[in-house]
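Chain A, query sequence.
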Amino acid sequence: MGRGKKIVDIELVVDEAIVLIEEGGVEEFSTRRLASRLGISAMTLYNYYENRGAILRETLKRSVGLLWNGLSSEVAAWRARGGDAIGAYRILADHLLGFAKARPRLCRFVLTECAGDDWTVLDAQIEKACGDSEPGLRSEELRRDIYLFELMVFALALKVIGGGETPERFVELVDEGYSLLLKRHETAAA
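Chain A, predicted structure.
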């Protein structure tokens, strides 16, 4: 770890940060461990990032992108089979469960960090991924029900990750939540 060594590709910092989070969770993430993986000193990281929080913010942005990766095409396939815009939120739940099972620590990082952040940013990404072309035209009641459904799905995903729920029970509870909150809006939104 030579003094003055530079990072050739700044994207590697976020790539390795994601790997560290996937291996040990955000609780085990440190700039010292990250620098060691990159073969540089921890001080070199601070030439590129102000602090640990700045690295985690960039890592969160990329991780959210990984979470949504493929969702738009899943929704497009749903819509091509005649599925409606509201039903796309059920596709979101299935997609989230798949991500939670495949990358549990990264999913926990995304869901917990986004919960403490500005939810409207995440909500706009969800609306875009679910193919909602006119979210501003939704009734307040529909917006509230979608928000409650999203919160329920995210909380259930965290329960699956933590072992408090099974994936099968996740599906049952999401189906019930969808029926109670969103199903009645299907025809009204079509």
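Residues 156 and 170 are 6 Å apart (CA to CA). The mean pLDDT is 88.
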